[in-house]
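Board work, copied verbatim: Major facilitator superfamily (MFS) profile domain-containing protein
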Amino acid sequence: MLTAMVAESSMLCLSLAYVADKVPQSRRAAAFGVFSGVCLAGFVAGTVAARFLTVPCTFQVAAVAALAAAVYVRAFVQETDGGASLLHAGDEENSSRPLCLPSCSSSSEDVAPPALPPLRKALSLSDMAALLTTSSTFSRAALVTFFYSLGETGLQTSLLYFLKAQFHYTKNQYANLLLVIGITGSLSQLVMMPILAPKLGEQKLLIIALLGSCMHGFLYSIAWSPWVPYLVASLVIISILVNPCIRSIVSKRAGPSEQGMVQGCLTGISSTANVISPIVFSPLTAWFLSETAPFNFRGFSLACAAFAMLIALTLSINMRPAELQPDSK
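↓ predict structure ↓
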């Protein structure tokens, strides 16, 4: 458990920063979507494999897979150059100014934007506060991330108990539902994200995905038959695109030396929401599934989770188009 606490979030941040250093801005949203789709495909494969393995064997296979991933990274993945190759390849016009330094005014177009020096120590709270207050893009994206993660985790926390109490779902039925969500979400990110992101742009796609997330939660809360959750799960084909869109928006706004920092901050904000969410939604779910509920609405906690995502949707709509573009030189 302690290893997972240290390693899992770090791997996500570093992987996203690596992708940002290697992929030009024009294709970064699609790349983030493909990366997330591959991760979700791994989740589906692991879930399927666990059905055919014993419990001890499952942990052994997971350890071997993790070791193989570490060996692969050490042998084949090269260190990045901080995005310098993208600049040399002609991506200067799309390069982003750092978030933590003020924009420098210069009459010469040949002057490069300021760059943060490589970080030699962990970020302090003051550094994170400066990051949140300096960039309106990042502060708005942080709020969207927090409320979306709060609602999404609340939905995941409450759904199993709701389905078991309302429709007497077994663990196998719930596992099948998770497989439907995983397969649909993986295909969406691998196929739809590369197609839709260049045509619609990250902001429009983010709004559509958050709208799908809200519908996802509200429809779960009013499910009237055991087959309805399976139908509602198909909406994940839209809602799963939220995270790649937010990550791409922030990545385009950050400087080459800040990719890991901003992705790590977003992951930290999301993790904070993931900690708060069960504390709020678990008692709420238990209350409305009990006989002491103030009114008869067993899916009330799911509706509240959808409302949190509705707040994220409102914040994303209020983002001005100028906030989504890199500063001009």
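The two ends are 46 Å apart (CA to CA).
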